[in-house]
Amino acid sequence: MLEAKHFYYDATFEGLLTAVFxxxxxxxxxxxxxxxxxAQEHLFLEAETVITDLEQSSRVWDGLCKKLSxxxxxxxxxxxxxEIEYSDQLILEFCIAIFQGKAIEFDVAHPIxxxxxxxxxxxxxxxxxxxxxxxxRLTKDHIYFASIEPDFNxxxxxxxxxxxxxxxxxxxxxxxxxxxxxxxxxxEVSVVDFEFHNQLDVFKTSTDFFALEEIEFQTLWQSYxxxxxxxxRKNLKLHTQHVPKRYWKYLSEKQQ
Amino acid sequence: xxxxxxxxxxxxLADAAKYDVSCSSSGSNRQNKSKGLGDASSSGIxxxxxxxxxxxxxxxxxxxNYCIFDCAYCVTRKSNDVQxxxxxxxxxxxxxxxxxxxxxIEGLFLSSGIFKSAxxxxxxxxxxxxxxxxxxxxxxxxxxKSIPGASDELMREAGLYADRLSVNIEIPTENGLKLLAxxxxxxxxxxxxxxxxxxxxxxxSEKKQIKSTPIYAPAGQSTQMIIGASGENDFQIMQTSNYFxxxxxxxxxxxSGYVPISYDSRLPQIGSQVPMLRENRLYQTDxxxxxxxxxxxxILNPLHQNLDLDIDPKLGWALRxxxxxxxxxxxxxxxxxxxxxxxxxxxVHKIIQARQYRLLNWEHLKKIGIAYNRAKYFIVCNSNQFExxxxxxxxxxxxxxxxxxxxxxxxxxxxxxxx
Lengths: 256, 419
Known about the structure:
- Chain A: Pfam families: DUF4130.
- The complex is a heterodimer.
- By secondary structure, chain A is of the alpha/beta class.
- In chain A, about 45% of the residues lie in helices and about 15% in strands.
- Chain A contains eight helices and eight strands.
- A five-stranded mixed sheet of chain A has the order 4-5-6-7-8, covered by helices on one side. Chain A has a three-stranded parallel sheet with strand order 2-1-3.
- The longest helix of chain A is centred in the middle third of the chain and has 23 residues, at about 110-135.
- By secondary structure, chain B is α/β, with parallel strands linked by helices.
- Chain B folds into two domains: about 5-255, Aldolase class I (TIM Barrel, Alpha-Beta Barrel); about 315-415, no CATH class.
- Chain B has helices at about 5-15, 90-100, 120-135, 150-160, 175-180, 185-210, 235-250, 275-290, 295-300, 315-320, 335, 345-355, 360-370, 370-375, 395-400, 410-415; strands spanning about 50, 55, 60, 105-110, 140-145, 165, 220-225, 250-255, 325-330, 380.
- In chain B, the strands form three sheets. Chain B has a six-stranded parallel sheet with strand order 3-4-5-6-7-8.
- Chain B is globular, with a radius of gyration of 24 Å.
- At the A-B interface, helix 5, strand 4, helix 6, helix 7 and helix 8 of A face helix 1, strand 1, strand 2, helix 2 and helix 12 of B.
C-alpha cells in the first residue's frame, strides 16, 4: 500500500537526493519536504527525519545523470542553490517523475518543468552577474579580495570561472549574506568559513587593509567609467535595469 | 608611471574612444595558458554599464588622439581644437593588466588616431598586444583596430595576438565618404579587411591538419557605420551591411547613431537629436538577417527604403505580407515560426520542443513567453479563439499600437515631429 510522509532533511543537496531515494525505498505516494531548520508540523502526515546518506544520494545522482541531459542535472543543482521556498519540493517531485519513467525534462509546458526552468533562469542570471560584478581589491597582504551579496547562493557556480581566469593571483570572494567565501591559493579553490568583525564595513576600501595602489586604480577606473559615458545619450532607466541598485555597493565605479 | 599624468591621459583617450560602439567580448575561444592571467569567456561578459546604458566590457581607449586626417564626423580630426595626448606602450599594458586583475574588464579595445603613417600606427597597436601576450602571458580579450592602409605583414601579425580586428567603414556609401572624408578612400578600408579574412580562412584550414597552428583572430572581424551623418536611407545602409557580412564573413556590423560634435555645415548641427530609435530599428533588421532567416530585400527594397519607426521591422514585414498568415504554431516549420511578429528565436525553440508533448494553446504560448499582444493577430493554435475578423494591415497596426506602450513613446513623438 502506498503511503504519504512528511520528510525533514538537513538542507543539503545530498540530503535532498537521499530523500528521493527514501521515496522509492518506502514506496511512498505523497511526500512533503521541509528543511529541518524550518520545523513545521504537518497535521495529517507522519514525520520522519531523513539522515543524509552519501551512498544513496550518489546513486540517485548517477541515475539522474543517466536519465537527464547535462542541462537537466545542471538545472536541478541551480534550482537547489536558489534557496527559494518550495524549490526543494519541486526538485523532489521532478526527480520522482523522472524515475517513474515520465519524460518531462523537455516538456517545457509541464507545470513542474516550467517552474524549474524559470528558477534556473534566475539563478543563471545571478551567476552571470557575479562573474561580472565581482570587484577585486588588492589588500596589503597581496590578496585580491572581493565581497558580494548575491540573491542566490552562487559561489559554488562561479568558482571554476574565477579559478581558470585568475590563475596567477591569490584571491578571495566573500559572500556577506551567507558568511562564507571561496579562496584560491595559486593551486586550488577552497571554501572558507569565517565572519568579519562587526565594526568592519567590508565594502569600504580602507587604507588600513588595502594597498596604496588599490586606491589609485580605483580612481583610474572611476574616471574611465565617467569618460566613456556619452552625455547626449544618457538613459538612467536602462542603466539601472542592467546594473540594479542593490549591487552598487560593491561596484568600485559606483563609489564616490 | 606617474599616477596623475596617467589619469589625465586616460580621461582624454577614453573620451575620444567612446564613439566606437563595439564593446563585445564574445566569440573567442582563447584559454588560460600555463597559469597566466585571463581566459576569454566565449559568451562575453559586460562588467558594467555606462549611464547611457551601454555595456562596458573592455578597456576602450585610443593609443593617441593625434591624427593626420581631417574626417568631418570624427572628434579627433586634425582641425578640431581638443586636448591631445598619447599613451606609451607600457602604460596601456599596465592599465590593462591591473584593470583585468580587479575583474573590471574582459580585456582591451585599442584604437588610435593616425600619426605619421598607417604602418607606423599599426605597428604600435601590435606592439601593445604582443607585449601583453608574450611578456605578461595575458589571455584575456584583445580587440585591435585595423588601420586603413596598413601593410599585409602587420595585419598578419596583428591577428596572431588579437581576438578581434575591426575597420570602421563609418560612412555607408562612397559618395558620403567623398563628401565627409575627402582624404580617405574605400579601398584603403577594404584592404586590411580582405587580408584578415584570407588569413582567418588559411589558419583555420591549417589548424585542421596541424594541431599546433596558432589561433588567428578567433573572434573574427567587425565594422561600424555612422547613422544619420551623411543622408543615406535605411535601404542603402542595410545593403552595405549585407555586402560586408557576405563578402568578408564579418561577425558584426555596428550601427552608431551620429552624435553631433561639430558645426561643420555638411553635418547635423550640435544639439540635434541622436537617432537612437532608428539605430535600434537597424539592429533589429540586422538580427532578422542573421538569426531569423530573412533576406535583407524582404525587409528593405526599392519600394520600402526606410524602416517604420513606430513598429519593429518584423511586424512591418508581416503587415505587408498578410497572405502568409495566420500560422498554426502546432504545425508550422521553424522558418515560419521565426517570422511571427512577437515571437523571438528562444520562443521558437521552446514551441518546437513543447509541441512534441501536447498541442499548444494560448496559455502555453503565454507561458513560453511570446509577446501576445503582437502575435495574436498572426497565429492559430489549439483553441477556438483566434482573430476571426478579416482585418486590414492598417487596422492591425492601429490595434497593436493602441494596446501597447512602447518604451520609445517619448522619443517617437519627438522624432516624428521632425517630419
